[in-house]
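Please fill in the sequence for the structure shown.

STRUCTURE ENCODING:
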């Protein structure tokens, strides 16, 4: 299974905001710079996360983006499922004509069971379980890598 870019970017934002939760709100420019994500993509991500109450946004002076308590207590599996925005992310027999549909094909059933097992396993963890031993060096190395390209 491969997560889509939207899920990847959203998880990066949530991880960053979770780690930064006791400091000042983040801006889109800060997130773009720190996470190496194009600002236009982040706008869509943050709008979606705000709509789903995973982040709180505030405009104006002293505004910015912070993580919500809902995001902090939601299991990683539920976050991934929400972000994937698809009830059948592995295989969807309805999107293209499939010659096996009328023959009781069980492949989709097997994939869905595996996907649910993945989500159940991921739900044993929350954002707080994503611990990095050297948080500051992540961003220092990222800045150094940017200058090399």
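FILLED IN BY: designer on duty
SEQUENCE:
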């Amino acid at each position: 299974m491969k997560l889509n870019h939207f899920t990847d970017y959203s998880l990066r934002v949530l991880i960053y905001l979770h780690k930064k939760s006791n400091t000042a709100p983040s801006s889109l420019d800060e997130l773009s710079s720190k996470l190496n994500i194009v600002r236009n993509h982040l706008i869509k991500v943050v709008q979606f996360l705000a709509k789903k109450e995973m982040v709180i946004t505030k405009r104006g002076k002293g505004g910015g983006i912070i993580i919500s308590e809902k995001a902090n207590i939601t299991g990683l599996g539920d976050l991934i499922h929400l972000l994937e925005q698809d009830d059948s992310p592995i295989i969807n027999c309805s999107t293209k004509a499939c010659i096996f549909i009328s023959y009781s094909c069980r492949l989709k059933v097997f994939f869905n069971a595996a996907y649910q097992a993945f989500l159940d396993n991921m739900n044993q963890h929350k954002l707080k379980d994503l611990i990095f031993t050297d948080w500051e060096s992540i961003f220092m190395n990222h800045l150094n890598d940017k200058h090399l390209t």
